[in-house]
Amino acid sequence: MNPRVSLIIGILCISFSPIFVKLAGVSPIGSAFYRVFVAWVCLAPFCVFKKKLAVQKRQLIISVVAGMVFALDIAVWNISLLKISATVSTLIANLAPVWVGLMSFLFLRKKSGLLFWLGTIIAIIGMIVLVGYQHILHLELNTGILLAVLASFFYATYIMITKNIMAGIDVFTFMFYSMLSSSIFLLLINGYMHNDIIHLSPKVWLCFIGIGLICQLAGWLTINYSLRYLESTKVSIALLSQTVFAGLLAAFLLNERLGFNEILGSVIVLGGIAVTFLKPRSRKENVVI
């Protein structure tokens, strides 16, 4: 498949995630569990048949930890989706690249450069416009927004954990163990919270199958495929369009409408995130996200 076509397909696939969660309308933790479990069940036979289960101890530990962090990411994000609009929640979750830059600077002492900090400032301004400065001054932040920010932090942590392991492990092997870890972790959380994830309506089951096959499996396999042939920075910028597609789908399927401040704030945030991915022409770096 043409890598660009693969990337477009992947972006369209993951854009359906908030739609499936809202249409299911049940426990967001249950939705998170079935998202990874359905994908893992479909991926497992392929990995066994192709003998892709061999893994080093260090790689296994990192894959398991990454899976648990990813589970926290989608669980918290799913909760936020039921409290605020799909467009706003998806937009805030895309702040992950900003967190990655900040963590790299704070913990790895990696200089992020002027463009990164400029983009970060623009994104923060966009967040203020989106939320409303009066709410920030009075600490009247919507729970859904706070959860979406937390989800973006978890996803950034996931990126930080996995970005150095992907060069030395097969993507299918990594996905097998990380999604298995996510499934077990989310199953335990559902059990602890006494969530009923079995006695569900046919509509809910269809949503769970859709989010597992379309968003998790097809979406991330096609995106990872495109990353093998396209520059990672360009792929990362293209992934920002997920917010646009999610917004269009939410307007069409969920009848969601955004206010002027939400639209303006979203545009500013997307612009700020895009700036963080720009690289001076004099510097040639490969950034893998």
Quick structural overview:
This protein has 289 residues and is an all-alpha fold. The protein has helices at 3-15, 17-24, 28-49, 57-81, 86-93, 96-107, 114-131, 133-137, 143-162, 171-192, 202-227, 232-239, 241-253, 260-276. It has one domain.
Describe this structure in words.
It is a single chain. The chain has about 290 residues and is mainly α. It has one domain. Helix content is about 75%, strand content about 0%. Helix 1 packs antiparallel against helix 11 and helix 6 crosses helix 9. About 45% of the residues are buried.
Labels describing this entry:
mainly alpha, 289 residues, disordered C terminus, 14 helices
Question: What topology emerges from the helices and strands here?
Answer:
Elements: H1 3-15, H2 17-24, H3 28-49, H4 57-81, H5 86-93, H6 96-107, H7 114-131, H8 133-137, H9 143-162, H10 171-192, H11 202-227, H12 232-239, H13 241-253, H14 260-276
Helix pairs in contact: 1-11, 1-13, 2-11, 3-4, 3-10, 3-11, 4-9, 4-10, 5-9, 5-13, 6-9, 7-14
